[in-house]
Amino acid sequence: MVEGRAARALERLLQIVWFGSMWTVGYLVAPVLFSVIPDRVLAGLVAGHLFRAVAWIGLLGGGVLTLIECLRWRAGGGRWRALLLLSMLVLVAVGEFWLQPAMEALKAAGVSSGGEFARLHGIAASIYLLQSLLALGVVLGARRS
User: Fold this and answer.
1) Model's pTM, two decimal places?
2) Percent helix, strand, coil in the chain (nearest 5)?
C-alpha cells in the first residue's frame, strides 16, 4: 500500500517542501530579514509569518509522512523513520500551539524583549534546531536504506 512509486514520490515531495522550507526560512531568510530590515519589530513580524507557514506545512505534510511511516511500521517496516517524523510533528505542535501563543500574548502586552519573551524565544529556537537535525536524520537515513 505505501510502497508504490506514487507513495515514494509523494514522500519525497513532502520532505522537500517541509524540510526545505524549514531550513530555508530558519537559516537563510530569517537571518537576512534581520540584517536587511532596520526595524527589528517589522523583521520579527515578517519572520513570524514565515515561521507560521513553515509550521503549517510541517503539521500537514508531516502528518501525511508520519501516517505513511506508521503504516509501514505496522507492516513490519523500519520504526526509526516513524519515530523521527512523529518527534518532529510533536515539536512543531509544541511550537505552534504552546510557544507561539505565549509569545504572542507577551507581544500584545508590550513585552517583546528580555525576560520571559527571551526565554520562550530561546526554547522555540532550540526546538527548531532539534527539528532541523531530526529532518537531517530522516534524509540521511533514507539514503542508507
Assistant:
1) 0.88
2) 85, 0, 15
